Each structure stands twice: as structure tokens, then as C-alpha cells.
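During the reporting period the student researcher (J.K.) took over the structure-prediction task from the postdoctoral fellow and processed the backlog of single-chain submissions. One of the processed entries is reproduced below for the supervisory committee.
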Amino acid sequence: MGKSKYDISQLKKTELDAPVICIQNCVATFSLGLTKLNLRDIAQKLSFCDFNPPKFAAMTIRIREPKTTALTFSSGNMVCTGSKNIDESLFACRKYTRLLQNHGIKVCFKDFHIQNIVASVGVPYPLKLNQLAEDHGPYVSYEPTLFPGAVLRVENPKVVFLIFRSGKVVITGAKDIEQIKNAFLCVYEPFIFKYRDTDDLNLSSSTYRLKTKKRRLSY
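J.K. obtained the following C-alpha cells:
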């Protein structure tokens, strides 16, 4: 059974000096204005297109500036990953469209949407993940034998936090950068800062997971 989502709409933003959030990836989708593309034919004509249907149904195109990858589907839809902000993602998507147009493919650019933004934060101290999971059991999942981080799912906005022993936090699921910032400022104090580990500062992540496993087996 999946974990419940913690409603953070009633939480106040922290007044503590929170660490800076870094955007790692924006995932966008857009349409080329067609309902059917012959990907095999396009890939044979254009050397910069990679298409191997036995392995993957989409055609892959990459550009260096901005450094991104686009997956082109026969339905005429494209998925662009790798950009560091929304403006860069929009620019890259338009560039992919123009690249195809310049090589005689009659397409257009429409229906641009951000589907997911992935961000990361580094806090300067290790975290007590086991205690975090014990205190917030319905909302936090921590299974160190399966995954090294604790998973916190929240709503309003709907975002997922991957919280690691080292202090690294990965935030995913938002479609807007402000959603990520607001969500992090709300959960920072009650879910992260509160669980800083000042007792075992030198305990590595792997040793901490082993210690947690032994502790659970002893119950």
C-alpha cells in the first residue's frame, strides 16, 4: 500500500537560512503539429537522428547548445530533457523544430508544456532518516535495503522529496519552479533541519543504513 501525501498548504515557510535550490533538469513536451511521422524515413535522411525501433520506439536528437536531448515519437509529439530552466527548455524545443524544418520536414511548434522539474539541495549536515521515517510513518518511506534515501510525498503542491543521509535532497514532480521553492521552504524546518544528526557526523551513508537494518531486525 502506498504512502499518504502530506498536505503542506498549512505549513509556514521557514524563517531559517535555507540552502539554495539548484534546478537540474526540466522535462518538456510539445507537438510538431502532425499526427503521424515516418521516423525511419527521417532518420535515414538526417544523420543527426538516431532511431533503433527494436530498442526504443522514439527517435533521438541531441543538440549541444543548450545541451539537451529530444525524443521524437511517430505521433508527432516530442519530449525534451536536460535543460536547466524553463526559458532554456523553450528555446531548445523551438530549436529542435527549426532543425527539422531546415532539413525539409514540414512541422511546426505548438502545445509546449513543462511536465516535470527536478531540483537538488545540499544541506551541510547528515540526516537521521530512520527517525524521520518513524516520526512521519504515514508520509515518509525509508527502506534502506531497497533505496538509500527516504521518500517524502507531499501535496499542495504535489511534489516528491528524496532525502539522503548525506544531506542531499532531490525534489521532483513540480511543473513550476516556484512550486519547488515554496514546497522546500515549507518542509525544510519540520522534515529536514529538525533531523540533522549532530551525534554521528562521521557515520557514512552505508554504515548508517547497516545500523538501521540491524536496529529494525532487533525489534
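The committee noted the following: Residues 86-102 form the longest helix (17 residues).
J.K. will present the remaining backlog at the next meeting.
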